[in-house]
Specification:
This protein is α/β, with parallel strands linked by helices. The chain folds into 2 domains: 3-36; 60-226, NagB/RpiA/CoA transferase-like (Rossmann fold, 3-Layer(aba) Sandwich). 29% of the residues lie in helices and 24% in strands. It is built from 7 helices and 14 strands. The protein has helices at residues 3-22, 60-71, 83-93, 107-111, 125-130, 159-163, 181-187, and strands spanning 25-26, 35-36, 74-79, 98-101, 115-118, 133-137, 140-142, 147-150, 167-172, 177-178, 195-197, 202-204, 210-212, 219-226. The strands form 4 sheets. The protein has a 6-stranded parallel beta sheet, with helices on both faces. A 4-stranded mixed beta sheet has the order 10-7-8-11. The chain has a two-stranded antiparallel ribbon with strand order 1-2. The chain is elongated. It starts with a helix and ends with a strand.
Length: 227
């Protein structure tokens, strides 16, 4: 057999094996060269993971407080009517006087601040670095993960306001706590600039030495207002 004939025979055998492996069959009515492949079997994926509205095992406020404390946040509880007194007490504990204030914060919260620094006109980076803390409300608090979500609407301000100061005082008002992440996603507007906060800003070096305050506030203080 000549080299050309041997090469042609080998090529034909290889192509035949490929067709057999792919289980191809001629497609009716589309010409001799058209092929079609069998449909792969449909695999049913179990979808029994937690969804919106799933109940948490403990009180949502208790679970949120536990998760926040586990992250290293400082947690306080207070009746909603006692918010100004709770704010003043926390700031006294930390000897914090200069507090950055976003637009839209409740007036009685602002009145509890020793030295409020309104973000109107906008505080520059040097001014933000000079304040002792920033105070905000939150849009949603996730009990299962201990996560606070800000959409930077009224009472929360722009993103720089909560990233530059060394301490962030966040107040969780009644009705803002949800059980799990799917509940939070359902309650949020994806078009907003969302910031998700799980504990103080921190990182670890190659030797696993934890350092706080690398990419945001070194201290996170959360007052959960019970209604």
């Amino acid at each position: 057999m000549s080299d050309a004939a041997a090469s042609s025979a080998a090529r034909a055998e290889i192509l035949a094996r490929i067709r057999a492996a792919r289980s191809v069959v001629p497609s009716a009515g589309t010409g001799p060269s058209a092929v079609t492949e069998p449909e792969p079997p449909v695999v049913t994926v179990p979808r029994d993971y937690r969804g919106p509205g799933a109940a948490a095992g403990a009180s949502l406020a208790d679970l949120l407080a536990d998760r926040l404390a586990d992250y290293g946040a400082l947690v306080r509880r207070s009746p909603a009517a006692g918010a100004p007194a709770a704010i003043a007490a926390v700031l006294r504990e930390r000897a914090a006087r200069r507090v950055a204030v976003p637009a839209g914060l409740p007036a009685d919260w602002i009145a509890a601040l020793p030295e409020p620094w309104p973000d109107q006109p906008r505080l520059d980076i040097a001014e933000l670095a000079a304040v002792d803390a920033v105070i905000t409300s939150v849009t949603v608090a996730i009990a299962q993960t201990g996560t606070l979500v800000l959409d930077h609407g009224p009472g929360q301000g722009r993103r720089e306001l909560t990233l530059v100061p060394d301490a962030h005082l966040a107040l969780v008002t009644p009705g803002r706590i949800v059980a799990a992440v799917p509940d939070a996603v359902a309650a949020l507007d994806a078009r907003s600039p969302l910031t998700w906060i799980s504990g103080p800003s921190a990182t670890s070096d190659i030797e696993l030495n934890r350092v706080q305050g690398m990419h945001g506030p070194r201290t996170l203080i959360v007052i959960i207002l019970d209604g």
